[in-house]
Amino acid sequence: MEISGVARPHTLSETFSALTGGGFEIVLPDGSKEYKRLSLRLAARVVSAIHRRLKYVELSADEIVAALRTARNKGAQGGRVHDLMHAVAAEKARADELWTTDQNDFEGLGKVPLKYLTDTSAT
């Protein structure tokens, strides 16, 4: 899969955290699932490779405060606040799609259409 697009710089640390912390699920050839976690060195290489293929958009303090004022109506609290910031940044960047691996992460947080990445739909 070719990776390109726009992201918040925060996405890089989130990716590193996911790859080295709780890990990620892979589907084995027999259909069984297994969780994997990358070494710190390999995760840094992956993030570096992704970094070179993206452009970045960041929110100003005023944009963050404005987004937080909508959090209650959008059901964004706790960790979902970070998802709200990504959704707002996607709108700011005029993104065509917001890619996610978890359908619940961004539902109802923004106007950019969601694309759910799964093992069978990622291209």
Low-confidence stretches: 119-123
User: Largest beta sheet: what is the strand line-up?
Assistant: 1-4
How many structural domains can be distinguished in the coordinates? Answer: 2
Structural class: alpha/beta
- Quote the average pLDDT: 88
Helix content: 40-55%
- Report the portion of residues in β strands: 15-25%
* Count of β-strands: 6
Distance between the termini: 5 Å
Biggest sheet features: 2 strands, parallel
What is the CA-atom radius of gyration, in angstroms? 15 Å
What key attributes describe this structure?
6 helices, two-stranded antiparallel sheet, disordered C terminus, 2 domains, 123 residues, 42% helix, alpha/beta
What does this 3D model show about the protein?
With 123 residues, the chain is an alpha/beta fold. The strands form three sheets. It has a two-stranded parallel sheet. The protein is built from six helices and six strands, in the order βαββαβαααβαβ. It folds into two domains: 56 residues, no CATH class; 66 residues, no CATH class. α3 crosses α5.
